[in-house]
Amino acid sequence: MRKVYGLGALQLDPDAGALTHDGRPMALGARAVAVLTALVGRSPEYVPKAEIMDAAWPGLVVEEANLAVQISAIRRALACVPGGEGWIETLARRGYRFAGPVVQLAGRASDSSVPADRKRTNLPQVLTSFIGREKEIAEIKRLLPTTRLLTLTGTGGIGKTRLAVQVAAECSSAYRDGIWFVDLAPLADPTLVPSALAQVLGVKESPGHTLTDTMCGYLRGKELLLVLDNCEHMLVASASLAAELLRETARVTIVTTSREPLHIDAEQTFPVTVLPLPSPKAGAVNIARSDAVQLFVDRARQHRPRFDLEDQRASAVAQICIRLDGLPLALELAAARIAVLPAEEIVRLLDQRFRLLTSGSRNELPRQQTLRAMIDWSYELLEAAEQKLFAVLSVFAGGWTLDAAKVAGTAQELAGDDVVYLLIALIEKSLVIADEDGDRYRMLETVREYAGEKLTASGSADTVRERHRHYFLALAEEAAPKLTGAEQVEWLQRLEAEHDNLRSALDSSVAAGANAEGLRLCGALPGFWVTRGHLTEGRERCARVLNMSAARQPTRERAKALASAGVLAYFQSDFPATRRLAEECLTIWRELGDRRGMAISLNRLGVLALEEGDFASARTRNEESLAIERELGNLSGIAASLNNLGNVAFEEGEFASAELRYAESLAIARDLGDQIAVATALNNLGTVALEQGNFAGASAMHEESLAIRRALKNRGGIGRSLHNLGIVAFERGEFGAARALHDESLAIMQEIGDTKGIAYSLEELAAVVAAFGNSQRAARVFGAAERLREEIGSPLPPIDRPRYDRRVAAARAALGDDAAFDRAWRDGRELTLEQAVELAQEEAVQR
């Protein structure tokens, strides 16, 4: 028997997944209904949390917080009746019980092969479980009582039909005369659209009347829900029929699914988006919470029942879901491959996704059986000009702006205004996604790959890529000087938004042999790469371009690319490479007679000399650089040289001179609005205050520097500020705070590949470990840091030596055994970097 429960003025129908109030559906998702059913079925007993979660999330591992969310939603729904808010009672840390009135209403015998209320609906039987979409279902249920026409829009394979059928099934008791489903996909003749609906309703033609008029007469007094599925290829006919039905009836509600809206009065559109994706860095438990992952796992278990999410497999499944954009059809097709392939192999083969993702369920239409056929269906509905722009837009990686689209469109002789209207059409047809602020557009990666094939087939791919390359080269060169001025935050954000396009432009320049363009791009991007912590990537891209045979001539473009590579090498503590690149760069600038370029190279060589402990050379190089910058009147260069001269004075212990130089550099940076330089000067002033014992002043300046660097998303700068705050905390005896700050700093230094920063972090963490009572472990970490400094050629600066020696001596004295301390130190020198980091960050301490 099918069970239906009366809860006062409410009715709970578990099989329909619906809670209704006076016959109208409540905005309650399927999970919440399942939770409520578990409680009502055991009322008035307390039900343990684990039992409720097993009922609502069968086969899934979820946190109790998810149950709390559903309980909260149920309580809000029950509050619509007097006293209903108190019907769910909590037994602290154990479970819940339903304390409201429960009456089991008369049920009906149910045959699993025949849907309940067969006479009131023809909804298709769904043979697989419905996963996720709880918020969407709740929102659609909220909209339906006050909406006559609701169109679910979205790209092919995104799950519009499944969502419409699920919502309709959950609302089965809300429409007196039932729910009726009409699939328009098989139709090729628009005149057959009314006939398809008439056949479902059982309406026959009447002499002297059109079929539509006859249906309107039949429906005029009825209260029902019509689901018109797959309207996109019959758009005009579907819109005409829907408009007529809405005009001639009062209580007929229509839900349509289409890749674009019908564009008639009273239409409310509801965009269906891809399923939420997991974080690629999450653990197995968190990955399992993603709707996309849950769908994949559910479908995979149809082919391999014991399929689970072990740690390594969870990572592979997360990659599959991310690479496939959370697109349900693509996920289902990929899950079918689990029958013969491990998840890791599926990840590898996704570069050939249109070949891999085929042979879906034979119960589906042919266009739903392969990924390519699904997008073919959408592409073939486009007009010729729309197809042209669709192909062109595939050149953009990570999205694009309208201006960029106009430039790329010229390769297909599409005028700017034409691009605007064609882009609108592609958005309406769900092939392009507009960001919420409307300033940026993108394609799902699967759609983009398909469009890329069309671009290649068009024969204009090289021209389109050239337009793309030129556009982003111009953008990078416009941004470069802005990164040292008041607009730097805006331009850093803009470059970050276009990062994938910049990568693509660099790849394109190498592939096309466009050496000058590649060099110019590399020369324009160091400020972005350094600030946002893309050091390794930037170095690799510079090396690739600089090693092109045609790029080896001593040109201005090569010099700028060399300077960029040198800066990146320095921030990764690769000092030999820094010197080689800076010296070649200086030679070219001298040959060209470029004073500005010479100043930059001298500046870099001065910084390097300081790093190597050659204070005299450092001062000479930076003074030469400062003289040229003053001659040229270049304020940003003057500020940089002053800062570097301050560094020389600081390392020599001349704190008053250092403070003066830093303050002068800070004043210029503030006038220019250069927040990067402001943060650097503040950081350096903080180190002066620390060395002079002014902990409060040091902390304040480092905190201000950190705030600026966080706002700029300056990864390396954030790591350095955290490190310095960790030193201040240690000097104040706040060892727990010091550990947390150095742990965070170390993680950043590892992320960006700053080995000198890693060495500093290891030394500070060794001191913390000793302070917590484990001097032997501290000795091993000190030893590992010492070896790392030797490997990168970065000796401990003399200014840091007294503090370092004090901490080593304190650790040695605390152990009380010099021989054991020295053995541990030697053992530490044999550790790999990974082992040293793990040892430094061990949570367990011995007191």
Q: How many E strands? A: 15
The pLDDT mean sits at 88
Low-confidence runs of at least 5 consecutive residues:
108-118, 362-368
Distance between the termini: 67 Å
Largest sheet: spatial strand order = 4-3-2-1-8
Overall morphology: globular
- Helix fraction, binned, reads 55-70%
Rg over CA atoms: 33 Å
Helix count? Answer: 40
- Percent strand equals 5-15%
User: What class do helices, strands and sheet pairing give?
Assistant: alpha/beta
Largest sheet: 5 strands, antiparallel
How does the SSE layout of this entry go?
Layout (H helix, E strand, L loop, with lengths): L3 E4 L2 E4 L4 E4 L2 E2 L4 H11 L5 E3 H8 L7 H15 L9 E4 L3 E4 L4 E3 L28 H10 L5 E5 L6 H11 L8 E5 L9 H9 L9 H9 L4 E6 L5 H14 L3 E7 L8 E5 L12 H5 L2 H10 L10 H13 L4 H9 L6 H7 L3 H4 L14 H10 L3 H9 L9 H8 L6 H13 L4 E2 L6 E2 L2 H14 L2 H22 L5 H10 L1 H13 L3 H10 L1 H6 L3 H12 L9 H16 L3 H18 L2 H17 L3 H18 L2 H17 L3 H18 L2 H17 L3 H18 L2 H17 L3 H18 L2 H17 L3 H18 L8 H15 L2 H12 L3 H8 L7
Parallel strand pairs: 9-12, 9-13, 10-11, 11-12
Antiparallel strand pairs: 1-2, 1-8, 2-3, 3-4, 5-7, 6-7, 14-15
Helix pairs in contact: 1-2, 1-3, 7-8, 10-12, 11-13, 16-18, 16-19, 17-18, 17-20, 20-21, 20-22, 20-23, 22-23, 23-25, 23-26, 25-26, 26-27, 26-28, 27-28, 28-29, 28-30, 29-30, 30-31, 30-32, 31-32, 32-33, 32-34, 33-34, 34-35, 34-36, 35-36, 36-37, 36-38, 37-38, 37-39, 37-40
